[in-house]
Design goal:
Elements lengths: L4 E2 L20 H14 L4 E3 L9 E4 L12 H7 L4 E12 L3 E7 L2 E10 L2 E7 L5 E7 H14 L10 H16 L8 E2 L8
Length: about 200
């Protein structure tokens, strides 16, 4: 089922999400719906707060990046079969010199900015069957995970921008929260006028 994606300005996007129990109702169905919602919006990641749930869960599938000719073979290898769900994740280590990459977000359509992140992470998490994993990712794989991880920490990529960049996109962000934007996928706008 395709769910509406919560737009910038909704308080759920700024909340630190809570861990979920092993017996969380209809978890497999939720994960499936999140993948379907993400694919429908042509995204590479989607966190539960983006569908209005303040829980520590996100899904990723960076396969669309595989078509990028500028991507290194190492990056392509890591991204190849990386469709997965991360439940109650915890980044235990980030290392390396920060590097910039142009990021966007399904909750903030039509806004893209360079964000600096460290190139390597180690993350502990559970899969949807509640098996525990500890994995290390680097490059673009690490970045996609860091972006979604930020969502469950109540952090948006726009929070990482300089004061000047934030001022430059302020009116765009206000328009998004009011629903004054055209998008190709279902969204829920926190400050939309009634009747929209």
């Amino acid at each position: 089922m395709i769910l509406p994606i919560v737009a910038y300005g909704d308080p759920v996007l700024k909340k630190k999400a809570k861990d979920i129990p092993q017996d969380y109702p209809k978890l497999h169905e939720l994960v499936e719906n999140m993948f379907e919602t993400m694919y429908n919006a042509y995204g590479v990641g989607l966190a539960a707060p983006q569908i209005g749930l303040p829980i520590r869960l996100f899904v990723i599938d960076p396969a669309p990046f595989l078509d990028d000719d500028e991507l290194s073979e190492e990056d392509k290898e890591q991204l190849k079969d990386l469709k997965k769900a991360f439940i109650n994740p915890k980044i235990v280590e980030e290392k390396g010199d920060e590097w910039a990459f142009n990021e966007g977000c399904l909750s903030i359509p039509d806004v893209r900015e360079d964000v600096f992140r460290q190139p390597e992470i180690t993350i502990e998490y559970f899969d949807e069957d509640f098996n525990k994993h500890t994995d290390t990712y680097s490059g673009l794989a690490a970045r996609v995970i860091q972006h979604e991880y930020d969502h469950i920490e109540g952090i948006l990529f726009t929070d990482k921008l300089s004061a000047l960049k934030k001022r430059l996109i302020k009116s765009k962000l206000q328009k998004i929260s009011k629903g004054d934007i055209r998008v190709e996928y279902r969204m829920r706008f926190p400050n939309a006028k009634k009747g929209r």
